[in-house]
Design goal:
single chain; Rossmann fold; two-stranded antiparallel sheet; 11 strands
């Protein structure tokens, strides 16, 4: 190459030193109360967060929980959700169940009684309070429409659920090429100061007996389906994996700017609610003995 491009550490040092001594910390959108271990999740401008999991692991429920709570905790936040499988009404039903404590079946079939009235009103008021700052993409489910929606709505948080079904601009030979292109465009979103949460499918792995499964121990960065660009382009990468009928582990597989931290959570399917539990799983990866005080949202 005739014209190499580089900067020496000596040239980079003055600006970096000034930033260390007088700069401001990165902007982050809290996604949970400070007493919850989930408050350690870094969602913010310029960051791409990848969340994968097997079918039925709770990816959509978890992502919508943290997005709605982020909207509750940051009044300047405006979120755009592109979900290719569920209508806005279905997603709102789920959040109403979580916020009201009324089971999802009762909400879906509108079988309310007098005993539900105060909780129903509280949940509806909470969702109405964030309604002006939450938008749902409608077809076509492609990145062009997502970008146009975010521009028109003023969205500074974008959720793509899920990436293997959202089309990028242009023609691509196969699914892998399509996902590669998606991640390239997503990084451009983040370069403009938008926070992006990417939901992705994962592939089965072999368990200790050679059987194909979604075993929590076997799932890794290599499990994300279709493309290595997914984990390469993400600042943080997580996989949700069931460890029992009631519990899931949020495995923190990649952390570009911080220390990885796993989160063991109870999942109440009737209420679509994740609650971190006090456990040795809720600790920095590779670090022993660190525990956190946990309380439900």
């Amino acid at each position: 190459m005739d014209n190499p491009s580089f900067i020496s550490a000596a040239d980079a040092f003055p600006d970096w030193r000034d930033d260390v001594l007088m700069g401001t910390p990165p902007i982050l959108f809290p996604v949970a109360d400070s007493s919850s271990t989930l408050s350690r999740l870094e969602i913010g401008p310029g960051l791409v967060t990848l969340i994968g999991g097997a079918p039925g692991a709770g990816k959509t429920a978890f992502v919508n929980q943290i997005v709605v709570d982020a909207l509750r905790l940051t009044n300047s936040l405006r979120a755009v959700i592109c979900n290719i499988e569920m209508t806005p009404a279905v997603l709102l039903n789920r959040q109403l169940a979580r916020l009201s404590g009324i089971d999802l079946q009762t909400i879906r079939y509108r079988q309310f009684g007098n005993e539900h009235s105060s909780r129903l009103e509280a949940g509806l008021n909470t969702l109405e309070g964030i309604g002006e700052r939450l938008a749902f993409c409608q077809p076509p489910y492609d990145l062009g429409n997502v970008a146009a929606t975010a521009d028109a709505f003023g969205g500074n948080l974008i959720v793509l659920d899920y990436i293997q079904r959202i089309a990028p601009p242009g023609e691509h030979n196969d699914k892998r090429g399509s996902v590669d292109a998606c991640m390239n465009f997503i990084r451009q979103f983040s370069d403009f100061g938008v926070a992006v949460i990417v939901v992705a499918a994962v592939s089965r792995t072999k368990d200790s007996k050679g059987r194909s499964s979604y075993d929590a121990e076997g799932l890794s960065l290599a499990s994300f389906r279709e493309s290595s660009e997914l984990e390469f382009g993400a600042d943080d990468a997580f996989i949700l994996a069931r460890t029992s009928e009631q519990q899931v582990l949020l495995k923190h597989l990649k952390a570009r700017h911080s220390e990885p931290c796993n989160h063991l959570m109870d999942f109440d399917g009737a209420l679509q609610r994740f609650t971190p539990v006090a456990s040795s799983e809720n600790q920095s990866n590779g670090q022993q003995g660190s525990r956190f005080n946990v309380s439900a949202l």
